Amino acid sequence: MSSVPVLKVVIAGNGNVGKTSLIRQFCEGKFEQTRVATIGVDFQTQTVDLPEKTVKLSIWDMAGQDRFQFIRAGFYRGSRASALVYDVTDPESFANLARWRDEILEAVEQQSFVVVGNKIDLERTQQPQQAQEFADELRAQYLETSALDGSGVAQLFETLAKLSLQV
Questions:
Q1: Average pLDDT for consecutive 10-residue bins of the chain (167 residues)?
Q2: How far apart are CA 136 and CA 89, in angstroms?
Q3: pLDDT averaged over the chain?
Q4: Could you give the CA distance from residue 117 to residue 15 in angstroms, rounded to a whole number?
């Protein structure tokens, strides 16, 4: 019996964009209306069945507040793919994605990305065209998700798993 590889992935973006909610929806199948902000970093593991093989994702949830920037760099190391998450109702969270990308690339030279517009169940103020252009610049896929109703969540983590296998 072959062992299941463990692949480290990172979920990054501003505070309150729904990173923890996406992870909880994927790993536990639930959404919590009220959440306490992540302090520093948190992680969960979840098995993903891909057509080519089964992998276990070690999913690292990075705190989005600036005060945690100094500790995040160490937690990026060893990651194989990152999701850059923004809130489609918050243009500032989209504007900061380049900063998140740069922060990750300072710690990990080679990184695959997926750009994620979360909270599509709400009325958006940020249109997807700019996000798609940003993703194209990174040679990354652009996905939209809703942690509330689960839309796109499985696809996000399957994409991260596939990207991680390509490293």
A1: 85 93 93 61 85 94 63 80 98 96 92 97 95 97 97 98 91
A2: 21
A3: 89
A4: 14
Enumerate long-range contacts of 39-47, CB under 8 Å, 24 or more apart: 39/63, 39/68, 40/68, 40/71, 40/72, 41/68, 41/71, 41/72, 41/75, 45/6, 46/157, 47/4
Give pTM, 2 decimals: 0.91
Phi/psi region, residue 13 (left: phi>0; alpha: psi -120 to 50; beta: rest), is left
Q: What is the pLDDT of residue 1?
A: 45
Q: Are the C-beta atoms of residues 104 and 31 closer than 8 Å to each other?
A: no
Residues in contact with 78: Cβ distance below 8 Å, sequence separation at least 6, in sequence order:
8, 108
